[in-house]
Sequence to fold (203 residues):
Amino acid sequence: PYDPACGWTSQSGRMDRVEGDRGGRTGKKALVAFGTKYGTTSKVAEEIACILRGKGVEATVLDLREGKRTPVDGYDLIVVGSSIIMDKWSKGAQAFLDGNREALATKEVAMFVCSGNMYTNPKEIDQYRRAYLDDVAKRFGIDGSAPKGLFGGEIDFGRFGFLTRAIVNSMMKDMLQGVDLSKPFDFRDWNAIRAWADSLEVA
Fold:
């Protein structure tokens, strides 16, 4: 179950954003922007922001589904992530990268994605990293050395429409043997997510 260090529990059903003070306040600001379809990536974005707050960074989370135009000039670090649907970033996340292309070229940027392929075919991790992160960074003019996180996702049949459920069942029937799909199936490595977030440097 999703039970991150920052206060959200499946029992409470809500986000408690904890302002950490590890290392004291730094005066630095970070924007964690994410695109998602079913909500998986939002939980990862919240966790990344929480870890950054614990390092004394003022972190703001931006849901790109809402279509808000947020200037990035006032932030020291921009973290942008997306779910992967049909091997592509969400439209909102791509629009954010495209619309802020010039500004992001002068900023510290980190990127992450959440992909179901990390569960269905983990042997192809190098291919996924190249297609979902390296190639996207290159397409939008982001420094190739930017930190990049490749994470798993969550299967929640309660959020899927009929067609999506049918496709997932067809593609993953053998892999999901023994999995109780009456509740969300979380295959994200939260320790890896936290370690990646903790490694981010805010200059």
